Amino acid sequence: MSDVTTVLLAGVGGQGTILAGDVLAKVAVAAGYDVKLSEVHGMAQRGGSVDTVVRFGSKVFSPVVDPGTVDHLIAFELIEAARKLPFVKPEGRLVVNTRTIQPLPVLIGTLPQPDGIIAALDYERAIFLDAEELACEAGSPRSANIVLMGAASVGLAFDADAWREVIAARVPAKTIDANLRAFELGRSACEGGACAV
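Request: output the structure for the sequence above.
Response:
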């Protein structure tokens, strides 16, 4: 039986999925795990999908994920959460930002806005939170990614202080306090396994 944990962070360009994945990878390395990290950019500068996979355990051979193998899905917006749902194990944990970023075909009117996403994710026991609102409360609207990492941290077996140390070392110096507040707000929202919507 493998002890490898697989985390998939899914969003679109500009949401900070790569920074969030880097933070998680550094926390796992600090805890003594072997870590593999991969990133997939789909027209990221134009709002395309950006996926970051972080896998950690005693020995990790590949960063590749297959359908049904993800332990934790951290979705930075609703449509990407729905797209990545097939990758999550039946017992997997979903942390989902309630923001929706409309894809280009919806924006130009060639496809309708997808329907029923929240209901489908709710059926899969997703934990929802408004990461942008919490980031604004923390004093940094661009820290929604760190809010999501705070929420995700509740379900990952790493010490909260390790997260704080990595975040402080990884973000720009002038944003450290706001990012640490963002982390705490995300974590608080998910204490006990339930997030506020």
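The two ends are 36 Å apart (CA to CA).
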